[in-house]
Amino acid sequence: MLPSPRPGHLASFLRPWSMIWMSICPLTLFFLTQTDIIHKPSGFITFEDTTVVPSLVHAASGLVLELGPGPGNQIHRFGTAGVTFIYGVEPNSLFKEGIDAKLRKHGLSVNYKLILCGVEDSDVLRDEGISEGSLDAVLCIQVLCAVKDPKSVMKEVWKLLKPGGRFIFWEHGESRDRLTGTVQALTNPAWNTFVGCHLTRRVKADILHSGEWENPGDIEEPEEPASLLPRI
To answer: Which of 181, 231, 166 is closest to 204 using CA atoms?
Structure first.
């Protein structure tokens, strides 16, 4: 028997459906007009500014690989101090134009290179000088929820990091709260269809099972029992 919803649960459970609705609306407009989807400014970058994300990006140093930069939300947060070079590995070529524009805007065109492939495409990465044990840091901000096989991705990340290298991440995944986990499972099919990622990934397990990490106890999982997007 599931516990009764606590105060705040209902609002948290309904909030993701507003994001699903916002995803459905431009899709409907697209099919009706047969024109490009209109992209409105998102408040997600502003939201990330209230979290640990900016400090995580600043923690990346040396030779860095940004996993799945997408529209380039983190580009403005990179500093050149302590960073030798940044590779962005992104399989979706539709993001290239926007990322290139942001690199020019923030003066990172010579410090950041976008590679249109997946992290599993070792031949492509090798041609760019990225081989096993070559990276100082891999930055992963909300990527493992959307990739096809997070376990495979993490195994590749482990191989690419040099001894002492750092995997720096901010993800969401399966809730440890029983009721919330049930609602996640019920919401996930619509969420995955219209938003494009998964609510029920066991992110911590996928990360830890990829290799023998030095400090797994440092992984932070704030208590968010009512959130369908609990962060790790």
So the answer is: 231
